[in-house]
Amino acid sequence: MTESVFKALADPNRRRILKLLAERPMTAGEIAEKFNLAKSTLSGHFTMLKAAELIQEERRGATIVYSLNLSVVEETLAAVMDLFKVNKDKPINWNEIES
């Protein structure tokens, strides 16, 4: 796991984008509707998430669709669990994890 992943996860807006993409792939416009941010600001968030390889983009004509890069998300979760010595045999209670 790289430092860019930690930097990407440090911002609450980027974490919110990841939560949205965990539900389903979304276009930039669909994501923008959920935020009261300038498009240039959101673009910066997308750039950082892509640099950390947490999201990927697919161009469909004039539209860009973003989705989670599940393999990197899984690697990140495994590294964090290992860092904090989380028991891998005990299921994670996701309701206890704050956003």
From TrEMBL:
Protein name, entry field: ArsR family transcriptional regulator
GO MF, one example: DNA binding
Residues that span the membrane, as ranges: none
Organism: Dehalogenimonas etheniformans
Coiled-coil segments: none
Keyword flag DNA-binding: yes
InterPro entries reported for this sequence: ArsR-like_HTH (IPR011991), HTH_ArsR_DNA-bd_dom (IPR001845), HTH_MetalResp_TranReg (IPR051081), SdpR-like_repress (IPR047796), WH-like_DNA-bd_sf (IPR036388), WH_DNA-bd_sf (IPR036390)
Alphabetical list of NCBIfam families matching this protein: HTH_metalloreg, repress_SdpR
Pfam families referenced in this protein's UniProt entry, alphabetically: HTH_5
Record keyword Ribosomal protein present: no
Keywords for the protein's UniProt record, in alphabetical order: DNA-binding, Transcription, Transcription regulation
